[in-house]
Amino acid sequence: MKKIKAIIICCLLSGSVFSQQKPNVVFIYVDDLGYGDLSCYGATKITTPNIDKLANQGVLFTNAHSTSATCTPSRYALMTGIYPWRKAGTGILPGDAALIVPTNKTTLPSLFQKAGYKTGIVGKWHLGLGDQLEKEWNGELKPGPNEVGFDYSYIFPATADRVPSVFVENHTVVALDINDPIQVDYAKKVGTDPTGKENPELLKMRSSPNHGHNNTIVNGIGRIGYMSGGNKARWTDEEMPLTFLVKAKEFIESNKKQPFFLYYSLTEPHVPRMPSTMFKGKSNLGYRGDAILQMDWAVGEIMKQLESLGIAKNTMIIFSSDNGPVLDDGYEDEAVSKLNGHTPGGVLRGGKYSTFEAGTRIPMIISWPSQTKNGISKALLSQIDFMASFSKMLKIKPVKSEATDSEDMINVLLGKTNKGRTVLIKQGITSLAIVKDNWKYIEPNKGPEINLLTNIELGNSLLPQLYDLENDLGEKNNLATQKAEIVFELAGLLQKIKDQKTKD
Ligand code: NG6
Ligand code: CA
């Protein structure tokens, strides 16, 4: 009897230690959501109850950053722990790009694999597929997510506004029909499909002038790039949230008995915003607002599922965005005209593409009910730090030459300390900035001051810029002339970090 009791106690103990060491991780990564887009971050014109609930049970970060102000580089950093500006070819990728994540290095998902997790990605990828531009869309598409650490993948290749407008499950286009082969080209028209340029009367949402989202029409929307064939495989934008949600839930359901890592990478509120009927008109802010409500709903559905499976307590949910907000990013979707006083970037200056704060300071919430204390953290943090932080949590030693820009922040992520990074580099579309002790220095550069298409201030200037983020979060007063010694120090430090070599 004593022996049995001892065994039971032993099992219970090891069970609890095991569960603490190996939480499931659901990383919800949304596309182009701004610092001011959620009610838990102060939005008043839109309410996001599910994400607010997540924030109430976890840690809400006010000083968390993506590495970059656009998607591909931010995601590259997330996967590798290497600053993307160290590596050529990590800018916004076309839909036919080759894979840019190395297949012979530790990645965020392969870390979890090494720790015995089942790993999956559902949603946007945008890191390339195959080993060259010219590829056979009708055969096996690899290397891709499955070759860099995901046991399961259900993705779209690039962005919702780029062809091919199809889903890829593991290595194959979903609903592929060999009698209607897919062809993709970014330079010239292929096939006879109408384009937004030639047949604007066929569009259900017009492209904005000069943005060029007027190539092949798929589901009544002009895309960037040309495709032909694959008619059965083409997605319906309005169904996308459900498609991804169902796949995410299936992945969770089939792995509920073992530790899993799910990277659930939603397209909202990136363009084209074409919400499902359930959400159209619901926000009164146009389709961009509706897409945010739709995204919030999807987060709530995942939370509900985890609860009903009884695994919510030991599941860490991370919620964040790949870059800051943009209103007109290619389509006439009323994002500007129906803004109604909403401020997607909150008090921050700039937006997507910008070296100003709104480009890369993004919402981040982490909830692991059995571990995180609820509260607000002001710690300086970057998404690049997930690599080193999870290495620590999973007790998988990082390879020395890998993830060299990543810092272990696991105790910050769990809300156990407020002591974040001391230094961080942030990347706009043409310039870098360095942050230290709440001072932010933007290097002088020749890039345009404003992106005329999106009407976003890019943070570029031929002169050095220095902002005191503690007292001037809106970056209104350039103190570079008054504080020349800080400019000198930060410019030197930025150069030193740039000069550090990586093996990749
Ligand atoms: C830009 C597109 C924009 C968007 C962005 C990628 C133009 C004029 N604009 O090049 O619409 O697709 O790329 O966004 O083509 S991201 O969030 O994936 O980085
Ligand atoms: Ca993005």
CATH topology of the domain at 22-169 and 236-413: Alkaline Phosphatase, subunit A
Largest sheet: number of strands, sense, barrel closure? 10 strands, mixed
Number of H/I helices: 10
Separation of the first and last Cα atoms: 58 Å
Q: What is the name of the CATH class of the domain at 22-169 and 236-413?
A: Alpha Beta
- Portion of residues in beta strands equals 15-25%
Could you name the CATH homologous superfamily of the domain at 22-169 and 236-413? Alkaline Phosphatase, subunit A
Kindly name the structural category: alpha/beta
**DSSP strand tally:** 22
Ligand list: 2-acetamido-2-deoxy-6-O-sulfo-beta-D-galactopyranose, calcium ion
Biggest sheet: strand arrangement = 7-6-5-4-12-1-13-14-2-15
* Shape estimate: globular
Percent of residues in helices comes to 10-25%
Radius of gyration: 22 Å
> What is the residue-averaged pLDDT?
95
Q: Which CATH architecture of the domain at 22-169 and 236-413 would you pick?
A: 3-Layer(aba) Sandwich
- Low-pLDDT ranges: 6-19
